[in-house]
Amino acid sequence: PDAGAWEPEPILASDAVKRLEPQSDGVFAGGSAETGKGLYAERCSGCHGADARGSIGLDLVERPVLYRASEVAANIRMGRGKMAPVPRMTDREIADVLAYLRTLRLP
Prior knowledge:
Low-confidence stretches: none
Radius of gyration: 14 Å
Distance between the termini: 34 Å
Number of strands: 0
Shape: globular
Helix content: 40-55%
Structural class: mainly alpha
Number of helices: 5
Largest sheet: none
Order of helices and strands: HHHHH
């Protein structure tokens, strides 16, 4: 099962800029990219692709949301659109996956 239909909320351009600004990582700080690479391969690559460039799921490379850790955590734990929720993923596991995804670059 997926998280159901997702409808984007209409916002002003000035508000969009604010929503893209990086935020403090808080409890998701200090993740291990090496550990995150393994977790990503195990739990995420089936939908987001081995290179995180998207497949069934979205492309995750160089996305501004990767610097808004609490939003990423909420999307993982609650699901969004076609992404099923993963409620048992720990703060440390999310920090590790974020650290790994932040190392990836577009060609």
